[in-house]
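Summary of Year 1 activities. Much of the first year was spent building the evaluation harness for sequence design. The harness presents a backbone, in tokenized form, and records the residue chosen at every position. We chose the following record to illustrate the format because it has been used consistently in internal testing since the harness was completed.
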């Protein structure tokens, strides 16, 4: 039995969310639950022809005398708050008592299942916990007359078009069983095939099942599903009146989720684009124009790389940046896979180019005289007005800008003869902080709103220009609400910014420390709406 349990766990880690609601409501496969949910305020209703507890317990022939515990099930689920999903299922059941010859079949209400699931999104995984309660309605002899329940720990992660789900927990109804389950699913267009391996282990038996299934989505928010159990051990199979065993059992049905309508209709896809200088290999903050697409214009940050959410299809994509020859390509975006593209742009002209620099203190705005600028192998200094004017061959350069009492900053610049390039470079004092103005979140949550991306790009540029700096990402709130709640929310928001900088822009995780301070460090009065808005902020504080 230990080998069986080990096999189930290892299988889950080898294979790996979409997970629309099926069979019992909630987000998951047939017997395996996903750690995530449908999103706040989203709901699902559906019906299935399946079996008790987990579904897929119907005999595979057409002889009603062999059917046992067959259920026409109705179910529903709802996400009332961001992290919590509730679902319920019941229906009408038919049981032909095979074990007692001559016993009349039972037709009546099925047992009620009530489920609650709590989800926590992490950097690369979603994890959660699930509790389920079984309330008996069938008479003794056809079903257990006792209450029952189960507890599960859940984990889900994504790999390109695949998702892996892991479940481990316990089941108690008349007997205690260990539940081990894993599932892998894929999303290809409207089709969502999946495969599960599940087991229920007791001290005297092991029920192990392999369950392939398929979901088909429509642009009306309806998905159809079919799953078929294959019992791998005798306990997982059913026994007919003649003593033969039914290895294969099926379930099928449909569900309606309004939240699926937009997703299916838009056919969203992911486009990972990286733009570099063809000569130096340095990243370029380029502009991306996608024809006949909304939105049609995207801007890359200083990393020269970004994952864009686009609509599937074939489009003309133009990549451009000042001082470079633009490139136009045809790119096919697929909803079933991540599309990756690397573009190397060449400087547009050769010859002499003009570079004008102005160096100033970021906190005070005052110019910094005698600041040193190292570029193209030359060490230069600014004049008393913090300015430096120089002529260089056209091309791409990096420069180190330094001054006494300030953090050394790296900058990249591309020069061409088309026009002079003027740059204002702000240096941060060695002990200071950078307030990210414009980083906004959904109310009461740590979900970063899209309008925050330009402010976050400012942080990315600072960190890339100062690769030796380690910062503390501080989350701050106003005084509205409880102090404990504000402290927790500020920590979650600091973590969200850290995860964004690591996951989207590739900043080294060892350089970022996230800490929430709640309402303890206001920089304005909390007595006014304006002051509270100022206090709700995210800061980068330089540690070293």
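For this record, the design step produced the sequence shown next.
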């Amino acid at each position: 039995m230990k080998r069986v349990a080990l096999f189930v766990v290892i299988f889950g880690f080898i294979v790996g969310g979409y997970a629309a609601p099926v069979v019992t409501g909630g987000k998951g496969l047939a017997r395996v639950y996903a750690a995530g949910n449908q999103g706040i305020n989203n709901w699902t209703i559906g019906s299935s022809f399946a079996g008790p507890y987990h579904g897929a317990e119907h005999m595979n022939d057409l002889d009603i005398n062999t059917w046992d515990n067959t259920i026409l099930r109705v179910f529903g689920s709802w996400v009332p708050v961001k992290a919590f999903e509730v679902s319920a299922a019941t229906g009408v059941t038919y049981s032909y008592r095979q074990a007692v010859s001559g016993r009349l079949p039972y037709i009546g209400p099925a047992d009620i299942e009530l489920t609650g699931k709590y989800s926590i999104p992490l950097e690369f995984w979603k994890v959660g916990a699930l509790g389920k309660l079984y309330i008996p309605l069938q008479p003794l002899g056809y079903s257990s007359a006792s209450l029952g329940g189960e507890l599960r720990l859940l984990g889900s992660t994504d790999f390109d078009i695949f998702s892996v789900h892991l479940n481990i927990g316990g089941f108690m109804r008349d007997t205690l069983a260990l539940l081990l389950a894993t599932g892998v699913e894929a999303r290809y267009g409207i089709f969502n095939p999946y495969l599960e391996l599940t087991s229920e282990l007791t001290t005297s038996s092991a029920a192990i099942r392999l369950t392939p299934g398929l979901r088909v989505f429509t642009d009306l928010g309806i998905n159809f599903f079919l799953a078929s159990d294959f019992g791998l051990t005798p306990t997982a199979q059913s026994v007919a009146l003649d003593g033969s065993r039914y290895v294969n059992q099926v379930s099928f049905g449909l569900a309606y989720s309004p939240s699926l309508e937009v997703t299916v209709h838009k056919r969203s896809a992911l486009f990972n684009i990286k733009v570099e200088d063809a000569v130096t290999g340095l990243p370029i903050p380029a502009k991306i124009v996608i024809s006949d697409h909304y939105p049609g214009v995207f801007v890359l940050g200083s990393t020269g790389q970004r994952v864009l959410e686009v609509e599937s299809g074939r489009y003309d994509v133009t990549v451009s940046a000042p001082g470079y020859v633009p490139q136009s390509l045809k790119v096919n975006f697929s909803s079933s896979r991540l599309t990756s593209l690397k573009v190397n742009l060449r400087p547009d002209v050769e010859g002499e180019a003009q570079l004008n620099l102005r160096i100033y203190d970021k906190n005070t705005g005052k110019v910094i005289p005698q600041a040193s600028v190292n570029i193209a192998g030359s060490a230069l200094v600014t004049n008393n007005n913090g300015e430096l004017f120089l002529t260089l061959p056209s091309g791409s350069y990096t420069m180190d800008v330094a001054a006494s009492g300030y953090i050394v900053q790296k900058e990249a610049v591309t020069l061409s003869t088309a026009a002079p390039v003027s740059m204002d470079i702000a240096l941060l004092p060695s002990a200071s902080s950078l307030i990210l103005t414009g980083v906004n979140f959904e109310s009461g949550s740590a979900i970063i709103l899209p309008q925050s991306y330009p402010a976050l790009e400012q942080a990315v540029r600072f960190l890339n220009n100062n690769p030796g700096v380690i910062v503390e990402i501080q989350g701050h709130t106003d005084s509205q609400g409880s102090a404990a709640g504000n402290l927790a929310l500020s920590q979650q928001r600091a973590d969200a910014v850290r995860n964004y900088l690591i996951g989207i822009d590739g900043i080294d995780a060892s350089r970022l420390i996230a800490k929430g301070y709640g309402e303890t460090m206001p920089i304005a009065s909390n007595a006014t709406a304006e002051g509270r808005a100022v206090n709700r902020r995210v800061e980068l504080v330089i540690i070293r």
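The domain at 2-264 is CATH 2.40.160.40 (Porin). Quantitative recovery figures across the full test set are reported in Table 2.
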